[in-house]
Design goal:
399 residues; MFS_4; 2 domains; Growth Hormone, Chain: A; mainly alpha
């Protein structure tokens, strides 16, 4: 009898051990799903859909650039509005972001003039900012979750990867843009469902440990080599300009270079590089400090941005997607904890200033790109301008 009972007992113990190991990760996974929906689907799915909407005659290249800039303007507006939001509202705002993003995705399936698409993209940008900030506030104010920044931000890359592959599958099936937007809405709902119960009223945010406390797991220890607050703001703003050209136009400028391969798969590689990179850059930040880790991150990103201007071969496009995708969320993973750590040293809201600078860079990127493309009919100019911005961002780390 002892032998008969020992199997189930050991099995039950193993199951309890596995469950105990997973339970602490559930809040982080829920917050990551908010970013997968709000950022990966709501914000960056447009990058994969952009060339298809141009193909279907729903947008011109210039109107698409305006829609992209409107989205980043909405992100800036939403981020600035969130600076006045109380911490206790974070769970409710996570749900608002999930619902609002799904509604925007569905609205883009409607037949309408370009001005309507531009307006919807602005609203989608607002909801993506709400998603990022509300999920971060909610997670980092839960006891024992401040160390979860890499898992949280990996949701962005996972959302990009999933939405891109959904677009590629729908495109292969012959779906046009309205049907694809409806499918993206459905996909965002599927991701939102397991996250939704975590944002009930039962878990109110609590004050986090001080970021300056010794051994605080969420942020690296202060280092004398860190940049000052204003150089960090400048570097972060230039980084926003530098990555956004690739993040807006990548499938568009590779669409005629891959033969029978859907260029959206290149955009999926962007997300594939982004998802695990947060853990790498977080570890490197702990090891090297803000200045050196951020400078290395931006240099690698600059190489990835300029590659398609140097070679129009498929391996260059793939390498660009992996390098830029593998660094742009890493920039956030490095810069935002550093800003939170040094916020006490300035008289203004450093996190708000960082968000505003990044938002301005993202708004300017598509507008400058549109002007340069209109002049030269080539993406080489925008990519060169983005690379210069990233090199300037790297230099700002050492001011």
């Amino acid at each position: 009898m002892a032998r008969i009972r020992s199997g189930p007992v050991r099995g039950d113990a193993s199951a309890r051990t596995a469950l105990a190991a997973w339970l602490p990760l559930l809040p982080s996974l829920a917050a990551a799903l908010v970013l997968a929906v709000g950022m990966g689907f709501g914000r960056f799915a447009f990058t994969g859909m952009y060339p298809l909407m141009v193909r279907d005659g729903l947008l011109s290249v210039s109107a698409g650039s305006l829609a992209a800039s409107a989205n980043y303007a909405g992100y800036l507006a939403g981020a600035l509005a969130m600076t006045r939001s109380p911490e206790r509202a974070a769970p409710f705002l996570c749900r608002v972001a999930l619902l609002g993003t799904a509604a925007c995705l569905l609205a883009l399936a409607l037949p309408a003039a370009p001005g309507f698409f531009i307006a919807v993209r602005f609203l989608a940008g607002v909801f993506s900012a709400i998603a990022l900030i509300a999920a971060s506030v909610w997670l980092f104010h839960l006891p024992g979750q401040a160390h979860s920044a890499p898992l949280l931000f990996s949701g962005v890359g996972a959302g990009i990867l999933l939405s891109a592959e959904l677009i590629a599958a729908g495109n292969a099936a012959g779906w046009h843009s309205p049907v694809l937007w409806s499918a993206l809405c459905a996909g965002s709902a599927v991701l939102a469902l397991p996250a939704w119960p975590h944002f009930g009223a039962s878990r109110a945010p609590q004050p986090p440990p001080s970021p300056n406390a010794p051994g605080h797991a969420g942020y690296p220890a202060a280092r004398t080599g860190d940049p000052g607050p204003w150089p960090l703001v400048a570097s972060y703003g230039l980084a926003g300009f530098g990555y956004i050209v690739t993040a807006t136009y990548l499938p568009l400028f590779v669409r005629d270079a891959l033969g029978h391969i859907d260029p959206v798969h290149i955009w999926a590689a962007f997300g594939l590089g982004a998802a695990p990179s947060c853990f790498f850059w977080h570890a490197l930040h702990n090891r090297l400090g803000t200045r050196r880790a951020l400078a290395l991150n931006l240099l690698v990103q600059a190489v990835g941005v300029i590659l398609p201007a140097l070679s129009q071969a498929a391996p260059s496009y793939l390498a660009s997607a992996l390098l830029v995708g593998g660094t742009f969320v890493g920039t956030v993973t490095i810069a935002m904890p550093a800003a939170k750590r040094m916020a006490h040293a300035v008289r203004f809201n450093l996190l708000a200033a960082m968000t505003a600078a990044y938002g301005v860079g993202q708004i300017a990127g598509p507008l400058v790109s549109n002007a340069l493309m209109a002049h030269a009919q080539s993406f080489a100019g925008p990519l060169a301008a983005a690379t210069v911005a990233l090199l300037a961002s790297t230099a700002a780390c050492f001011l």
